[in-house]
Amino acid sequence: MAEFATLLESAQVWLWHGFAVFLRVGAFVAMMPAFGERSVPMRVKLVVILAFVLVVAPAVPLPVSAATFDRLTVLIVTETLAGLLLGIGIRMLVLALQTAGSIAAQSTSLSQILGGAAADPLPAIGYILIIAGLALAVLTGLHIKAAQLLILSYDMLPMARFPAGSVVSEWGLGQVSQAFSLAFTLAAPFVILSVIYNIALGAINKAMPQLMVAFVGAPVITAGGLFLLAIASPLMLEMWIAALDGFLSAPFGVRP
């Protein structure tokens, strides 16, 4: 009976520990690219969360205090908040890729093609970039990097401790500004192409007012946009995956 009581006490400690890790991992996976998409069934997400818990929990120190109602309330709030912070940071990079696709599509008159192909309305270029980016992230070991990030996050965001509001607000502002900066950088070739196209179209219209330049120029900008997408998409995805790796390695670090 003494050995059974010891085993039962150890099981309670591990269950309490697993639940604490589950809170952070669950919130993180809900916002995670590829694994947390709306198209993924909830049962699959639950299996993914449990798999991450089995990987992360042994590397996290066991809780020193017993499970009480007050501690449980604090734990639920703090761990869920920590997981959401990390997940939102990664999700901002996905939104940056989506914004870059929208800017590129709007610049090349391709913003209405296949607009409803995703859970959120996306232009064709944005949809292609999102699928390619998520596939590239998974192929380069997103699950391994995410598990490492979760393990290291307990050093940056200790369990059952609230992060400082000023630090979180400053960090969030930096993530938003970086996401929009990255989006415009990725879409810069398409914006430049659009500017050149409109300048050339204006010059032709000035020289030949009787010519319907819109009907002549529409196929040109569409073909040019598709050609530029084929050339620039590998470089765009390379820059995006580098930004994603930078966040996964140092989510609260200072990056240019």
Structure, explained:
The protein has one domain. The protein has helices at 2-31, 42-56, 69-107, 124-139, 142-156, 165-207, 213-249. Residues 113-118 have low confidence and may be disordered. 29% of the residues are buried. The protein is an all-alpha fold. α1 (2-31) packs parallel to α3 and α3 crosses α4 (124-139). It is built from seven helices and no strands.
As a percent range, the share of helical residues equals over 70%
Give the CA-based shape: elongated
Q: Span from first to last CA?
A: 60 Å
Average pLDDT across residues? 83
Q: Indicate the structural class.
A: mainly alpha
Whole-angstrom Rg = 24 Å
Uncertain stretches: 113-118
Number of strands: 0
Strand content of the residues, in percent? under 5%
Tally of separate domains = 1
The biggest sheet amounts to: none
Counting H and I runs of at least 4 residues, what is the number of helices? 7
Q: Spell the H/E element sequence.
A: HHHHHHH
Secondary structure elements and their pairing?
Blueprint: H1 2-31, H2 42-56, H3 69-107, H4 124-139, H5 142-156, H6 165-207, H7 213-249
Helix pairs in contact: 1-2, 1-3, 3-4, 3-6, 3-7, 4-7, 6-7
Summarize this structure as a short list of keywords or feature phrases.
single chain; 256 residues; mainly alpha
Could you write a compact summary of the structure shown?
The protein has 256 residues and is mostly helical.
